[in-house]
Write a structure and sequence with these properties.
mainly beta, SH3 type barrels, five-stranded antiparallel β-sheet
């Protein structure tokens, strides 16, 4: 008998979300981004709040504003524009 194939939100993310010895610092959680800042979605698997879908790992976009404690990030996926609501722990600044 074989097991049923996993089709959940975090399926096939074992290597994609691997941290490889990196630790989460308080400074990364408390970073402030302004509207217009360019950021890259870099999912941190140890923080579950505000985690975007696995498809957006590595995609860059522009911060458009705040929504509660999270940030709104506008990005382009193919020819479609999307708005993600992401925690600051999952973003990396692109200077």
């Amino acid at each position: 008998m074989s097991n049923k194939k996993a089709k959940g939100v975090r399926a096939k993310t074992r290597d994609k979300f691997k941290r490889r010895g990196k630790r989460l610092s308080v400074n990364k959680l408390l970073r402030e981004f302004k509207a217009g800042d360019r950021v890259q979605v870099n999912i941190n698997s140890s923080v579950h709040s505000g985690m975007p879908f696995k498809r957006y790992q590595g995609i860059s976009g522009v911060v458009t504003g705040m929504q509660g404690r999270s940030l709104r990030v506008a990005l382009r996926e193919g020819n479609v524009y999307r708005t993600l609501i992401v925690n600051a722990a999952h973003l990396k600044s692109l200077h």
